[in-house]
Specification:
The protein is of the alpha/beta class. It has a single domain, classed as 3-Layer(aba) Sandwich (Arginase, Chain A), CATH 3.40.800. Helix content is 34%, strand content 13%. The protein contains ten helices and ten strands. The strands form two sheets. The protein has an eight-stranded mixed sheet, with helices on both faces. Helix 2 packs across helix 5 and helix 8 packs parallel to helix 9. The longest helix is centred in the middle third of the chain and has 20 residues. The protein is globular, with a radius of gyration of 19 Å. Its cofactor is Zn(2+). This is Histone deacetylase family protein. Belongs to the histone deacetylase family. Keywords: Hydrolase, Metal-binding, Zinc.
């Protein structure tokens, strides 16, 4: 179901197998145009970003294998995170949408629900789109559901490897997941792959930590675990004062109820480079170490890179190497889940920098 990496890129050997999972089904997802600045722009979540990572792995002698069709355990894990009517919406929205005369080729919301206690649930797919989208950055195309459930399958398969005793596995997920709430899509995300992996790990481990290093705050992941002490959520991201998702990811957000104190946000100013970022990263790993998790999920966004098209932050590959080394030194079984990283020319190098430092940390 996967491939164990036994050979270091260029030199050396992997001191511990690292299992990579990939599926070509991701390429079926073609997001089309996104709502932005009062108009429309092409999505950055192009299949070529995954091809860029695969190319870098291949150049290092690494050949991930495709997964077979998902089994019941995948759907069980997904259903522990996401609301049944939301899953029904994702699975059937496109087929219902294209029956509407004059409808676009992808499902978009043109109104958004003002949710409050007692909010009803519409029967119309147009109303359901309003209910289940939190922005116009996650249109549903004809194959979106198929790609989203395949990405969730990767996350569950990677978690299974760790549950089986491996120290680390990697799910090359696309579409990404950390902006997906229990019942809302947005930010190019439909199913929350990191949360699904964490929930699957929770079937055996009492405490799981999630660290999100994507340039955008993982608002969906935070919301899913907001009131829970059994999953610590930690995130480093461009400050939402002037960056998507704007309404979550502030330092004062710490969880609520039983989960108070188990959300830890580190918003970082625009233009921050390696040194400033890594000083905050040290705070994140200290918080994780103090929590003493039995397993770790990394939302492995690579879009804080200085050559990312949006330039939200300005990190080099060296910063991703430091993060790989320091996360490995936590000594916790780990599932790596791909999030953002949208420049095909550099994302593969960032991934290999992270992997190589991870392996070198235990040599």
């Amino acid at each position: 179901m996967g491939v164990e990496l036994m050979q270091m890129p260029a030199t050396g050997r992997w001191s511990q197998p690292l299992t990579i999972f990939h599926t070509p089904v991701h390429a079926l997802h073609q997001p089309g145009l996104l709502g932005a600045l009062g108009g429309w722009r092409p999505s950055r979540d192009d299949p070529w970003r995954i091809h860029g990572m695969l190319g870098a792995l291949a150049a290092a002698g690494l050949q991930p294998q495709a997964l077979p069709a998902p089994g019941r355990e995948v759907f069980d894990a997904v259903e522990r995170v996401h609301h049944p009517r939301y899953l029904d919406f994702l699975a059937h929205a496109h087929a219902q949408w294209v029956q509407i005369p004059g409808a676009s080729s992808e499902v978009h919301a043109n109104v958004f629900a003002m949710r409050s206690p007692g909010t009803g649930y519409p029967s119309s797919v147009v109303g359901r789109a309003a209910f289940h989208f939190h922005d116009q950055l996650a249109p549903i195309g004809i194959h979106t559901w198929k790609a989203a459930i395949a990405a969730a399958h990767l996350a569950v398969a990677a978690a299974e490897v760790v549950l089986g005793g491996s120290r680390c596995s990697y799910a090359m997920c696309r579409p990404p997941g950390h902006h997906a709430y229990a019942d809302m899509a947005g930010g190019g995300s439909y199913l929350n792959n990191a949360a699904i992996a964490a929930e699957h790990l929770r079937t055996r481990f009492a405490r799981v930590a999630v660290i999100d290093i994507d340039v955008h705050h993982g608002n969906g992941t935070q919301d899913i675990f907001w009131q829970r002490p059994d999953v610590l959520f930690t995130s480093l991201h461009r400050s939402p004062e002037d960056y998507h998702p704007f309404f979550s990811g502030y330092a004062g957000e710490v969880g609520a109820g039983a989960g108070e104190g188990f959300t830890f946000n580190l918003p970082i100013p625009a233009g921050t480079t390696d040194a400033g970022y890594l000083s905050q990263f040290d705070r994140a790993t200290e918080r994780i170490a103090s929590y003493a998790p039995e397993a770790l999920v990394v939302s492995l966004g690579l879009d804080a890179h200085e050559k990312h098209p949006a330039q939200g932050l300005l990190l080099s590959d060296a910063a991703f190497a430091v993060m790989g080394r320091e996360l490995r030194q936590l000594g916790v079984p780990t599932v790596l889940v791909q999030e953002g990283g949208y420049n095909p020319e550099v994302v593969g190098g960032s991934l290999l920098a992270f992997f190589s430092a991870w392996v070198a940390a235990v040599r």
